[in-house]
Design brief:
single chain; 108 residues; mainly alpha; Death Domain, Fas
């Protein structure tokens, strides 16, 4: 199932429609397990849900992150990209936030 995301930001922000799903592996690599875990926790994901991803893929932080990010997309729907970028900024992860924006920015 593909999820279309509409993202609109003012100032250095983007306004476009993008299917986030193909970008999940690359975004997961940028974020890493600890950052994605913290973002999910601060966004109301249960500790049990997060731990399930960790236990389902022991020793594979990239796959843990991919799966948690896919759950993020499923739960957040059309707001997934915007909320991810906002939460990264709130958490002080500005480098990751900017890299995610760059990944999502459509090529011209």
């Amino acid at each position: 199932m593909m999820v279309a995301i509409v993202v609109c930001w003012k100032k250095k922000r983007l306004c476009f429609s993008v299917d986030l799903t193909p970008h999940v592996p690359e975004i997961a690599t940028v974020l890493g397990w600890q950052v994605m875990r913290n973002v999910a926790l601060k966004s109301g994901f249960s500790q049990v849900s997060i731990n399930n991803h960790s236990h389902n893929h022991p020793g594979d932080a990239t796959e843990q992150t991919v799966q948690l990010l896919l759950e993020w997309v499923q739960k957040k729907g059309k707001k997934a990209a915007r909320e991810l970028v906002e939460r990264l900024g709130d958490e002080g992860c500005t480098d990751q936030r900017d890299r995610v924006r760059s990944i999502l920015q459509p090529s011209h």
